[in-house]
Amino acid sequence: MASEGELTQTGYIQHHLQNLVFGNHPENGWSIAHGSEEAAAMGFWAIHLDSMFWSIGLGLLFLWLFKKAADNATAGVPGKLQNFVELIVEFVDTNVRETFHGKSDVVAPLALTIFVWVFLMNLMDLIPVDWIPHASTLIGIPYMKIVPSTDVNVTLGLSFGVFALMIYYSLTIKGPVGFFKELAFQPFNSPNILVQALFVPINLLLEGVALIAKPISLALRLFGNMYAGELIFILIALLPWALQWTLSVPWALFHILVITLQAFIFMMLTIVYMSMSHEAH
Amino acid sequence: MNINLTIIGQLISFSIFVFLCMKYVWPPVMAALRERQEKIAQSLADAEQGAQRREEAEQEVNTMLQDAKAQAAEIVAQAQKRSNEIVEESKNTARKEGERLMASAQADIEQEVVSARETLRKQVSSIAVQGAGKILGTEVNADAHAKVLDDLVGQL
Q1: Residue A244: pLDDT above 50?
Q2: If you placed Cys at A174, which of A25, A77, A178, B144 could pair as Cys (CB 3.0 to 4.6 Å)?
Q3: Binning pLDDT at 50, 70 and 90, where does residue A219 land?
Q4: Is the CB of A109 less than 8 angstroms away from the CB of B25?
């Protein structure tokens, strides 16, 4: 009996950690995956419908809310929504101004989008873990992972976007030569040309790894924090229902801090990376 | 935890959201914020200017008040002086009038006395003639003793 109970518990956890995958299965063709083996068999040509749905939905929510406030924005006495939106915008603007000293119309809206969007995606973690997956099962959707930031694809998608902007600005502002110099003549350099020639490959290796590590660490930091938080909520949900609140309430309260902090860190690092790619050393 | 197309999907939606935010959200909110900032700064400057003007006006009022007070005091002093003068003048006039009245009364009295004496003189001679007639028992001719009678009258 114990092994059976364990099995269902494992099944429960696995079910909760499985995305709704639509992809090209080698045998079934384009279809929705039933279980993790089928999803794994689909390889790269698959898409997480639930992650995309929630992430786009939350992105639209963010845009709709802020657009509404922006349309009604006046210099007079602000309403409640406008006040709230202005609070966030000013917060982001202050952080951008303090960290990013270049001139760009992109960085501040980028930071705002990241902060609010990532926060909203993280916020989904506070919805009790069973509600939406259970409701989805009732209407015939087998899997439903509602926290997009616990999907490494989503966080990687964000960080690759940031990475692409980093490369773009490095190339346009410093120029290809300047960018290459930054990678090749740091951290080791020497006035002696021969020694310098020896240093260049080492520098390229070090700086190249550092450069690649930026988007990866950016994505994995957010993913790891949110995945761990989600997993703990799922584990708490395995407790007898009458006891769950003793752990889920403190963890949820703590998690409010975590989700805000992670959204903030993602935003700040993006601003820092943008700043680095705008300024020559 | 499979790496798959979701990355691309997320990347595309991310780019679109950032673009839309850059285009439609950030500029109007920032514009409103900046406009309000200017408005508040303007209002504060206006308020300060207003306060300064009020202070100036207060000072002006104070100086005007002091001027008015000084003027009033001067006017009062002048009025007092003038009234003293008037009182003095009227006192003099009254005294003169009184003296004049007294003098005329004196003159009247003297006139009265003179006329009474005149009347008395006229009657004295006749009374004296009648008295002498009664004493002597005869008619006394007044014309005959006119000299004596005139003397008598002259003594009065």
Answers
A1: yes
A2: A178
A3: very high
A4: yes
Catalytic residue, chosen from A225, A248, A275, A277, is: A225
Phi, psi for A191 (deg, rounded to 5): -70, -25
pLDDT value, residue A6 = 54
Confidence of residue A270 (pLDDT cuts 50, 70, 90): very high
Q: Which residue of A has its CA nearest to B25?
A: A67
Bigger pLDDT: A42 or B107? B107
Closest Cβ opposite residue A55 in set B3, B10, B31: B10
Domain ranges, ordered by start, for chain A: 51-129+148-278
Burial of A159 (0-12, 13-18, 19+ CB in 10 A): buried
Average pLDDT over residues A147-172: 94
Q: How far apart are CA A226 and CA A204, in angstroms?
A: 33
Query: Which residue among the candidates A221, A248, A275, A277 is catalytic per the annotation?
Result: A221
Does residue A97 have an active-site annotation?
no
ipTM above threshold 0.90: no
Pick A19 or A221 by higher pLDDT: A221
Catalytic (active site) residue A51: no
Check whether A1 has a pLDDT greater than 80. Answer: no
pLDDT attached to residue A4: 45
Secondary structure class of B140 (helix, strand, coil): coil
The answer to whether the Cβ–Cβ distance between A44 and B8 falls below 8 Å is: no
Residue in chain B lying closest to A104 (CA): B22
Q: Residues A153, B10: contact at Cβ < 8 Å?
A: yes
Q: Which residues of A touch B6 (CB under 8 A)?
A: 46-48, 51-52, 151, 153-154, 157
CA distance B104 to A89: 111
Q: How many residues does chain B have?
A: 156
- pTM of structure: 0.75
| B2/A21 CB distance under 8 A | yes
- Closest partner residue to B6 (CB to CB) among A66, A117, A157 is A157
